[in-house]
Amino acid sequence: MNTEPGTGNSATADDGDELDPAQAAAILAQATRQAKREFDHPAPWRLVVIAFVVLLAYGAIWLSVRGQHPYGGPSAWAMVVTFALIAVLIAVSVSSARRATSGITGPSVRQRRTVAAAIVVVYIAVYVFAGALKHLGVSPGIVSGVYPAVGLLIIVGAAGAGLAAAKENWLDLGTALAIVGAGAICAYAGPVGVWLATGISLFVIVSARAGVLAWRHRA
Amino acid sequence: MHSEPLDPVIHAPARLRIVATLATLPDGDELSFTRLQEILALTPGNLITHLRKLEDAGYVSTEKTGNGTAGKTTVALTSEGRKALDGYTRALRGLLDGL
């Protein structure tokens, strides 16, 4: 059950007299890494799943729009696939968050719920705004192409960057800024290419984040 | 070279792991006794003994809510506990640099 020296069932045996500084430093580093592995979410392997799901979702839309002249927007089958993949994404994220925050109570949990609610409002506002663009006669290349592919990422990414900067969470800040930057650059790929370019960019960014987390959690 | 002494309350493997685990949570957050026990793989009796030592030193605070099977105990690192861990880490670094 227990592999750490001196952490057995006898508390009296667990005094620090026999513990040299090098051993103490090793225990401290190992315990910190293990705790981060337990509390960080999503875990690296879940992030890799998310990266693939995002690539598949954007890839499905790109397959449905490539070769369209004039551009008409994603087909019904691509939207069904995308929404099914989004459902998988939400399920993976929720189960990951539940596991990581199990047994934790306090301000950070309340803060996380508030942030999640704010992001839902931002998502809805982004799509309501897209409806307004369509109503105003903006071309389908923008309303059903560039805007939904990258507009959402830039807006939600910018909000995430602000939150991460306020909390001095550099990994989250780097991820959010990479998403905003990738979104801005991918917009130049046009209404068809934007789906593939964004899908690949997000895959790379999320995989890189998984790599950084795995490196931090290394045993 | 003069180094700070290592805090004897923290300088024990199990207590070091308890404090390090609680320190990774944001300030003010609490962890359930059950989850802490699961992470550290300690028996309830052993964990209680070490938590009592840390609580006596003012490094952790425990709170019990409810009774019987519905009861839940949560544990949190106090600000003194966080400071003590910072001091311990500094002292450890000083000792290791001096080697």
Task: List its traits.
heterodimer; A: 219 residues; disordered N terminus; B: 99 residues; Arc Repressor Mutant, subunit A; 15% strand
Structural commentary:
The complex is a heterodimer of chains A (219) and B (99). Chain A is mostly helical. In chain A, 76% of the residues lie in helices and 1% in strands. Chain A has one domain. Chain A contains seven helices and one strand. Mean pLDDT of chain A is 87; it is low at 1-13. In chain B, strands 1-3-2 form a three-stranded antiparallel beta sheet. Chain B is elongated, with a radius of gyration of 15 Å. Chain B is of the alpha+beta class.
The SSE string of chain A, one letter per element, is HHHEHHHH
Number of domains of chain A: 1
Kindly give the count of domains of chain B. Answer: 1
Intertermini distance of chain A: 18 Å
Q: Helix-strand pattern of chain B, N to C? A: HEHHEEH
Radius of gyration of chain B: 15 Å
Q: Mind telling me the C-alpha Rg of chain A? A: 22 Å
Which regions of chain B have little confidence, pLDDT < 50, spanning 5+ residues? none
CATH architectural category of chain B = Orthogonal Bundle
Q: Which range best describes the helical content of chain A: under 10%, 10-25%, 25-40%, 40-55%, 55-70% or over 70%?
A: over 70%
Which two protein chains have the largest interface (Cβ within 8 Å of the partner's Cβ), and how many residues from each? Answer: A-B, 36 and 40 residues
Hey, roughly how much beta strand do the residues of chain B contain? 15-25%
Treating each run of at least 4 consecutive H or I residues as one helix, how many helices of chain A?
A: 7
Sheet having the most strands of chain B: 3 strands, antiparallel
How would you sum up the global shape of chain A? elongated
Output mean pLDDT of chain B. 91
Task: Please report the first level of CATH classification, the CATH class of chain B.
Answer: Mainly Alpha
- In the CATH hierarchy, the third-tier topology of chain B is known as Arc Repressor Mutant, subunit A
The total strand number of chain A stands at 1
Distance N to C terminus of chain B: 10 Å
| Biggest beta sheet summary of chain A | none
